[in-house]
Amino acid sequence: MEEHHQHQDHTDCGIPKFDSRDLVIREDIMAKAKELAALIGTSEEVRQFQKAEKLIQNHERIQPLISAIKKKQKEIVAFESFQNKAMVEKIEREIAELQDELDGIPLVTEFQQSQSDINYLLQLVVSVIRDTVSEKVNVESGSEPAATSGYGE
Description:
This protein has helices spanning about 25-40, 45-55, 60-80, 85-105, 105-140; strands at about 10, 15. The chain has five helices and two strands. The chain is about 70% helix and about 5% strand. It is mainly α. InterPro entries: Bact_com_dev_regulator, Com_YlbF, YheA/YmcA-like_dom_sf. This is YlbF family regulator.
């Protein structure tokens, strides 16, 4: 079995220094990450999001509102390039009215809530992983979480 060596610098203590772009993540770690992602994909939060997304795509009022907002955003860019401040302000007011109408549709609120729920779930999973790894690193190295190296003191 041939060993794969990466070019790496070493610190004064002989500890390898990796450039984050050169790190090769172990296949078993990546496999578990993909397994976790697939599991999250079956969660109730993701199901609700997909359901709301499908309803939004087929909604007779939401799609024209989104299209109108996008069109007006492009108009703003054009009028900004002509430095026509009055027209930019007028179109911004029109966009705000369209956005208010869009936000007033309960399905849009449900969709935004489901996006927020998924983000919360992902942040929670990342926090658990980070905290668990941090505990392991601190226990194994025998250091305190906020320990300093003593340099510059």
